[in-house]
Amino acid sequence: MSSATFADSPIEPSWTLPSRGRVGMFSLIAAESAIFTIFVVAYIFYIGKSLSGPTPKDVLTIPIFSTICLLSSSLTIHLATRTLRKAKIASFGFWWFLTLMLGTIFLIGTGREWHRMIFDEGLTVSTNLFGTTYYSLVGLHAFHVTVGLIGIAIVMTFTLLGKVTSKYSERLEVFSLYWHFVDVVWVVVFTVVYVIGR
Amino acid sequence: MASDSIAIHPAGVATRSVSERLHDWVVTVDHKKLGIMYVVYALFFLVIGGIEAMVMRIQLMRPHNDFVSPQVFNRMFTMHGTTMIFFVVIPVMFGFANYLVPLMIGARDMAFPRLNAFSFWLTAFGGLLLYFSFVGGSGLYGAGNAPDMGWWAYAPLTARAFSPGHSADYWTLALLVSGFGSVGTAINIIATVICMRCPGMTLGRMPLFAWLNLVMAAMVILAICPLTAAQIMLCVDRYLGGHFFDTQAGGSAVLWMHFFWIFGHPEVYVLVIPAFAFLSEIVPVFSRKPIFGYPVMVAATVCIGFVSLSVWAHHMFTVGMNSYANSFFAITTFAVGVPTGIKIFNWVGTMWGGRIQFKVPMLFCIGFLFQFLIAGLTGIMLGTAPFNWQLSGSYFVVAHFHYVIVGGILFALFGAFYYWYPKITGRMFNETLGKLHFWLFVIGFHLTFDLMHIPGLLGMPRRIYTYEPGRGWDTLNFLVTIGAFVQAVAILIFVANLIISCFKGAKAGNDPWDAWTLEWSTSSPPPAYNFARIPVVESRRPLWDIKHPEDPDWKYE
């Protein structure tokens, strides 16, 4: 068999391709967006279709404080990765810790809201369509926040152990894309649940 | 010669025990091994899904047959559909993509090898979970031992009242788990195609196989995720007492249909685009001509990807949507036929004036061209809303989509098996057995699925476990079953050919077809690192350039 071989051609110096981490993360974000879209569509479709109470107007209070916390965590994680790129580890640790705290505050806020609605208002997943769609959509988002926080906590641990250096800044930037996505989804969920749905 | 690049000492390989070699396969992150595992796994489930189809056909062979009970019949068509779509065709397409995409774009592995292994095992365990329902499905209730609500699982059949026990939950979780696996692999394919190409491999020079699999992966992401979301909702309904699809509490059964078909119809294109990819590689090589209309092929594929995302409700014309929705989905359904037609013309244009070699892979591709055309035409018929009102839920529909999946996708798949078999195993398959497989399968296929249209037109509904004699369906159903047996024999010949040739076949060499894409430049089977030296390409047919330095392609591109 006259098999083909490649001549010793020099590799083109200008041959650069996009970072696979970023492309992978953007693909994941596209996938997650598709999942959230279906949940948002279901939520909007079922607005006002519950056969019994309580209704969103009765029980929902707008979570302004936790929303501010979550949205500002996007800024802090951005500052964290930017300082890491400049190899300022201490300041990276500060911003990263702040991100962890802001995310945790958001999650606690959701937990308190759920606790109030379940035990004071008597709204559960099985109460009515509002309960089903509300807990599913907000819960799906809270699940994504939790996953993000676990990731942030792991990096925080490594930071405290002194293992995080600027060579990981690319990876953490890819990770921060996920966190930004979680924040953007919250803007959509907030609009649908607390503005349109109420 | 490429073989002088690096010589691997075989002694270390030969002395390892079976358990060590098994361990290698289980822990591997090599895209080629994972690709082979996907394919073997899919073949295993192809046999299981085929047995389920045979059970149904035996039951329907004559009126008032009592080969299986109605309950078992329901389980058979549910498991047959679910198995064939999720655990045969998706894994086998991923298997080929896994194996071939890195080789074709001159890479040493996928972008994320460990994600690749993770995705495979998710899919594998998803299939096991589905089949575990035969054992564990009855749970404490003793009701049903496999899901029996049809592969699309319409509400309210999935409600606790109608699917007691756990069989429906096994179905849901199996699809959820394998769905995560599919999305993982899709992300991997996208990142690989975009980020791992060898120097010179611009998007415009990429083999169409890589292009089409890129589109397929993007569609997997956009199609499987809605299904994942719907399965999560179904879990909420069944485990937490939610009301998404509970009409008693104001929920909507039609919403499930929409969510399912938002997945379901793009899914058809997820399956058929890799089949297009096979044709786009095989037809040029056996016509001895470069592909006709490369940029148009890419554009048509992307176009199919977009349009096919907006055709889903043509599965729901009989539900009672308003006339605007009916018109919209009928028009989009016709529109998706246009880029598909362009592709068929391009393959015919590639063959036109070529020195066609009628080897086994090419035979299957030619079979694809004719049969896929007919499948597309019955698709246009069913896309016409008034015609659909008459025939929805009949055997005409069953005949139509089996024409797509068997006559189109499976034929292309067989072509791909024969075409890349020498590369994957290093040995040639038996050409005579291959031709026997082809002709038997063509005869069986047409006997089964051509005739199946007619009882559908005569009013035979799908999913019935038996029927009254004397309606004009008897002889046709008998012949359909005979055809199914002929196909089964052909498949056995195919599997036997794969196994026997693996040991007895003639050595294939690097490039038995005198082909032009990069996978044929490395040894057969390729070494773990694929290429001793990362290739640099200058045209769409890099091997042509090397074989014909006096007349390289890059002068004309």
Describe this structure in words.
The complex is a heterodimer of chains A (198) and B (557). Chain A has 198 residues and is mainly α. Helices cover 72% and strands 0% of the residues of chain A. Chain A is built from six helices and no strands. Chain A starts with 19 loop residues before the first helix and ends with a helix. In chain A, 36% of the residues are buried. By secondary structure, chain B is mainly alpha-helical. Helices cover 66% and strands 0% of the residues of chain B. Chain B has 16 helices and no strands. Chain B has helices spanning 11-14, 18-27, 31-59, 70-104, 113-136, 167-195, 208-240, 253-287, 294-307, 323-351, 360-383, 385-391, 395-425, 431-457, 474-504, 542-547. The interface between A and B is large, with 43 and 59 residues.
* Cα-to-Cα separation, first versus last residue of chain A: 73 Å
Number of helices of chain B: 16
Based on secondary structure, the structural category of chain B is: mainly alpha
CATH classification, class level of chain B: Mainly Alpha
Keywords:
heterodimer; A: 198 residues; mainly alpha; Four Helix Bundle (Hemerythrin (Met), subunit A); 6 helices; 0% strand; B: 557 residues; Cytochrome C Oxidase, Chain A; 16 helices; globular; disordered N terminus
Which helices and strands occur, and which strands form pairs?
The complex is a heterodimer of chains A (198) and B (557).
Chain A: H1 20-45, H2 56-59, H3 64-85, H4 89-119, H5 129-160, H6 169-196
Helix pairs in contact in A: 1-5, 1-6, 3-4, 3-6, 4-5, 5-6
Chain B: H1 11-14, H2 18-27, H3 31-59, H4 70-104, H5 113-136, H6 167-195, H7 208-240, H8 253-287, H9 294-307, H10 323-351, H11 360-383, H12 385-391, H13 395-425, H14 431-457, H15 474-504, H16 542-547
Summarize, please.
Chain A has 198 residues and is mainly alpha-helical.
